[in-house]
Amino acid sequence: MKIRLYIIPLFVALVCILCAHHTSSESKILSRGSAGWNGSDMDSYPIGQPEITVIKAIMPIGMTTPIHKHPNPMAVYVLKGKIEIGDENGNSKQFKQGEVLIPTPDQWHYGRNVGNIPAETITFYAGTVNGAPLRVMKNGD
Asked: What Å distances lie between residue 131 and 39, 45, 51, 108, CA to CA?
């Protein structure tokens, strides 16, 4: 009987430790900056009622987007695959799973899946209600 009395507190302590382990959170800054992928500074945030838009996208293998730009600040988290962003001057940079791409607002660029699997991304747009569109196509598409 004495053994059982000691086992109960040990069992309760073990359960508490395990529960505390599973309920604790962890956070890590993935990216922070005031410049885009090519080093260009971001000017400012749009004025008006803030609106955050979050989009999950899947880009097929080999797909290249048309030349476009984004009027407002944004960030792209690469969930799977490898993408490349490039500008009309021949500058480009690749981003792989787990990395964050920050496009510079109002600069023309393209995106391309350069990996061997469909690329999956989550994009976070910082805009305003009834403000600028999320993306502007160079050729008006």
From this structure: 26, 12, 9, 19
Collapsed DSSP state (helix, strand, coil) of residue 62: coil
Pick the CATH number of 50-137 from 3.40.50.300, 2.60.40.10, 2.60.40.1120, 2.60.120.10: 2.60.120.10
Instruction: Please enumerate in sequence order all residues whose Cβ is within 8 A of that of 108, keeping only pairs 6 or more positions apart, or say none.
Output: 67, 68, 69, 87, 88, 138
Whats the size of the chain, residue-wise? Answer: 141
pLDDT digits (tens, 9 = 90+) for 85-114: 999 899 999 999 999 999 989 999 999 999
- How is 36-47 classified by DSSP, letter by letter? -TTSPBP--PPP
For the entire predicted model, the pTM comes to 0.78
How far, in Å, CA of 55 to CA of 47, rounded?
A: 22
In tens, the pLDDT along 9-66 reads 544 554 555 555 556 788 888 888 888 888 888 777 788 999 999 999 999 999 999 9
